[in-house]
């Protein structure tokens, strides 16, 4: 791993390489971890959108468990695992809700099924009749009308304070570098495998 002083540039370099090599169907998947209302950690895979102003953007319903947990405690982490390059990136940071205009831009890029699910479903809530819910979604899709972004659908911008890069080696002597933001400057430490 060459020395790059800006971890965002290093992330983009690694990410682009993985995207060019990967065969996985959803190469943008990233594990988002939050601190639960019950103080247990919660982790789930979400779709990474892009980097804006050195922050990592994800989207989803604000009234989902992840949305509620982020509003309760904005400290989150992201974990990327890339199979082709055998690299891992772990990010710890502070999440803030993105602007409505940006959320609308992301929502507009979704396919009609995804939009209908976002409009009708309350992500993570218990359901009595799954078939009835599915029919409701399919009927909305069949109407073939524009679906506006629901009020509770948005996203989060995650401003990193720590980013760890790890390159796996066959010898198990993995190359790990930790970038920590202190006084608006990235400090780099080589850490043991």
Automatic annotation (TrEMBL):
Keywords: Flavoprotein, FMN, Oxidoreductase. The keyword Lyase does not apply. It comes from the Bacteria. Its cofactor is FMN. It is an enzyme of class 1 (oxidoreductase). Residues 153-193 form the Pyridoxine 5'-phosphate oxidase dimerisation C-terminal domain. GO terms for molecular function: pyridoxamine phosphate oxidase activity. Its EC number is 1.4.3.5. Residues 27-138 form the Pyridoxamine 5'-phosphate oxidase N-terminal domain. PANTHER family: PYRIDOXINE-5'-PHOSPHATE OXIDASE, PYRIDOXINE-5-PHOSPHATE OXIDASE. Belongs to the pyridoxamine 5'-phosphate oxidase family. This is Pyridoxal 5'-phosphate synthase. It comes from Winogradskyella alexanderae.
């Amino acid at each position: 791993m060459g020395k790059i002083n800006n971890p965002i540039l290093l992330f983009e370099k690694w990410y682009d390489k993985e995207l060019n090599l990967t065969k996985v169907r959803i190469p943008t998947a990233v594990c988002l971890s939050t601190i639960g209302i019950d103080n247990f950690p919660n982790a789930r895979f979400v779709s990474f959108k892009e980097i804006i102003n050195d922050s990592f953007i994800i989207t989803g319903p604000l009234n989902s468990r992840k949305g509620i947990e982020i509003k309760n405690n904005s400290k989150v982490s992201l974990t990327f695992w890339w199979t082709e390059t055998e690299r891992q990136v772990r990010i710890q940071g502070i999440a803030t809700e993105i602007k409505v205009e940006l959320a609308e831009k992301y929502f507009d890029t979704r396919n009609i099924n995804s939009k209908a699910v976002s409009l009708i479903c309350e992500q993570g809530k218990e359901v009595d009749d799954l078939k009835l819910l599915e029919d409701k979604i399919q009927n909305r899709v069949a109407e073939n009308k524009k679906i506006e972004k629901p009020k509770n659908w948005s996203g989060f911008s995650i401003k990193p304070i720590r980013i760890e890069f790890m390159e796996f080696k066959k010898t198990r002597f993995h190359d790990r570098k930790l970038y920590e933001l202190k006084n608006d400057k990235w400090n780099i430490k080589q850490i043991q495998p």
